[in-house]
Specification:
The chain is α/β, with parallel strands linked by helices. The protein is 45% helix and 13% strand.
């Protein structure tokens, strides 16, 4: 029995209520900018007034729409097996999405990515025990621009069985991506019952839902495919400088998304998420590894949990350009805080350079970090009293406890068994093994994982069907 689940909080109940009520007031009095024709028609049918493209959403409509949002989302793998559940304080990790560069494992340089990079990346993700979902993590440039969103979903499902976090770059792509997903299910009803993918939807701060983003939410809701709001307020630039002001704006933007989705189809599955940041006033950058960015994320997640919705956050990233100490402490701090906050879906594993770059080596290292986080979240367990006295009595017989029955019974449960990326060798053994750095060990491990046989090889008929869809749309 776990004594207590380790956790962290940055808001109390009173402030959650204040933020929620102010966010509703913002939508009702200041409104939200919407340019999508389908959404405008939905708003008109429900009596939502507007001035030009700014729509004023009444609080009672917000409350009504919130009441129909499911409080959990089960995700299923490519073969239709239940894989993870986004609910309560269950924590899961996926790689960050849509990086436009990759850190080359051979040269150490950041460069534009190719299809073969994402194939290798997806194969590694499949082998990683603690990264429980995959994502369309890399945008590669050796396919036509009109295919850069849906082609990633094809490559992801071809090479990894895990559920996938994805998204559209063009309105026209959703139907292709839905067809790809349907190839893995028996019917549209089956896809809704056993969701394989979550579609990111990113409102534009402040208080704007673009035509593309709104259409993605509407299309997904119509098919009962989960949408994940990735609101991106920038404190000090496109959002208030105060952390609490930024959290409030995030809340308003996501509430607008809730209304769009639920007016489209009552009960549509949604994830309350985001990728906020502060503006570094010295350098004009948007640091994802800043502690204040992490604090905004924590507040956003607490509001999502307050509203009883599945939650998401971009955490565990680093702004470093190489795998160095900064990459380690920013990634580790973010992953740990996300775990303690109970974020249901944590995106960011592998990411560097302000969300622009993916690194396979960092991904492999992050897998070990996530394993440690998950061990922490299991907490300290009570196996029954007395806790130590009876065991210590037995010490006198052998003057060691290594062979004690309690040690043999519990060590695999109590200890996180670190993988080969983590150095726990003696100094002499470390030297004998080549005096390798963490990055060197991660590179070697990534190479091994990419070459291993698939844990769940894709069915030949499914692979052919995916290839047919791809050929037809290229």
């Amino acid at each position: 029995m776990t004594i207590i689940r380790p956790q962290i909080k940055v808001l109390d109940e009173d402030y959650k209520n204040k933020i929620f009520n102010e966010a509703k007031n913002i939508l009702e009095t200041q409104g939200v900018f919407v340019e999508n024709e389908d959404a405008i028609e939905l708003f008109a049918k429900n009596g939502i007034t507007h001035k030009d493209s700014r729509f004023f959403i009444p609080s009672d409509i917000v409350d009504k729409c919130l009441s129909s949002v499911p409080n959990e989302i089960k995700l299923f793998d490519r073969e239709g097996n239940e894989h993870i559940n986004l609910k309560n304080d269950e924590v899961h990790f996926d790689p960050g999405s849509a990086a436009i560069f990759i850190l080359d494992v051979n040269t150490g340089d950041i460069r534009e990515a190719l299809t073969e990079d994402f194939i290798k990346f997806s194969k590694v993700v499949e082998q990683l025990e603690y990264i429980e979902a995959q994502s369309t993590a890399i945008v590669y440039n050796d396919v036509p621009k009109i295919a850069q969103d849906w082609h990633r979903l094809y490559i992801a499902l071809l090479n990894c069985y895990k559920p996938v976090i994805t998204g559209t770059f063009r309105k026209e792509s959703f139907s292709i991506m839905k067809e790809i997903l349907l190839s893995c299910r028996l019917s549209e009803k089956d896809l809704a019952k056993k969701p394989l993918a979550i579609f990111d939807a990113c409102p534009s701060p402040p208080l704007k839902w673009s035509d593309l983003t709104t259409q993605s939410v509407i299309d997904a809701a119509s098919s009962m495919i989960p949408s994940e709001f990735v609101s991106m307020p920038l404190a000090g630039a496109s959002a208030p400088m105060s952390l609490i002001g930024c959290i409030t704006q995030h809340c308003a933007e996501c509430l607008a998304g809730v209304v769009i989705a639920q007016l489209t189809k009552k009960g549509a599955p949604l994830v309350w998420g985001g990728s906020p940041a502060i503006l570094d006033m010295k350098r004009g950058t948007t640091p994802m590894g800043a502690i204040e960015t992490m604090m905004i994320n924590l507040g956003d997640v607490e509001i999502g949990r307050f509203l009883k919705m599945p939650t998401h956050a971009y955490m565990g990233l680093s702004d470093s350009k190489v795998l160095d100490t900064q990459a380690g402490f920013e990634g580790g701090m973010g992953a740990l805080l996300a775990g303690l906050a109970g974020v249901n879906m944590v995106s960011g594993a592998g990411m560097l350079d302000f969300e622009s770059t993916q690194s396979i080596e960092k991904l492999v290292i992050d897998n070990e970090i996530v394993g440690m986080v998950k061990r922490l979240l299991r907490g300290i367990e009570d196996y029954g009293a007395p806790f130590a006295s009876d065991i210590l009595k037995d010490f006198d017989d052998k003057e060691e406890l290594l062979s004690h029955p309690s040690t043999l019974k519990l060590f695999r449960k109590e200890l996180f068994m670190a993988g080969p990326v983590i150095d726990r060798l003696s100094r002499n053994a470390w030297k004998e093994n080549g005096s390798k750095s963490a990055r060197k060990r991660a590179k070697e491990q990534a190479t091994k994982l990419a070459e291993k046989a698939s844990l769940k090889p894709i069915d030949d008929n499914l692979a052919k069907e995916l290839e047919t869809i791809t050929s037809r749309n290229l």
